[in-house]
Amino acid sequence: MSNTDSPKNRLQIPVKTLKMTRPLIDAFGDLTDDHNPLHFDDDMARARGYPAAIAHGAIAASLLFAMMTDWLGDWPLPQDEIDLTFIAPVFTGDWVTAGGEVEFEEDEVWQCSLWCKTEDGKLLIVGKAQVHRGRDRS
Predict the structure, then answer these.
(1) pLDDT tens digit string along 73-104?
(2) Are 116 and 87 in contact (CB under 8 A)?
(3) Span 6-16, pLDDT tens digits
(4) The domain containing residue 20 runs over which residues?
(5) Can you tell me the distance from the alpha carbon of 111 to that of 76, in angstroms, rounded to the nearest whole number?
(6) pLDDT (tens digit per residue) in 24-58
């Protein structure tokens, strides 16, 4: 892959999808000791203008990490990097899909764009990753 590849020729990272269920959010809250009522109380969330309780953003972010590991197996290597920006909240009941593509390769490093979206296309997280191909990554 070169710096001049068009978007239609870019390597697509296989997507990974997860539903933000109440048991998942409850378990994550217990694991992280984050019991902010906004994550657990739909009525409180609605009173603040949200359609439902807000899932912890780190759950959606972890879907990106799982996607990268499924794709590469040994990700991350110590020199790999990831930078994420949270765009919008994820709500209880949302289906979230993580995906991405290799934008270009330079010096054996893949420059990847990453994203998480809801099933209706709402962008939740965007990011970039640098993947050092190393070992058997080809």
Answers:
(1) 888 888 999 999 999 999 999 999 999 999 99
(2) no
(3) 555 789 999 99
(4) 7-132
(5) 14
(6) 999 999 999 999 999 999 999 999 999 999 999 99
117 CB neighbour count, 10 Å cutoff: 22
Tokens (6 digits) for 2: 């070169």
Closest of 84, 98, 112 to residue 16, by C-alpha: 98
Identify the three-state secondary structure at position 122: coil
Q: Is residue 137 part of a domain?
A: no
In a domain, 96, yes or no: yes
The arrangement of strands across the sheet holding 81-86 comes to 11-19, 95-106, 109-118, 123-132, 81-86
| DSSP code for 107 | T
Query: If you search the block for the tokens 């809801």, which residue do you land on?
Result: 118
pTM metric for this prediction: 0.86
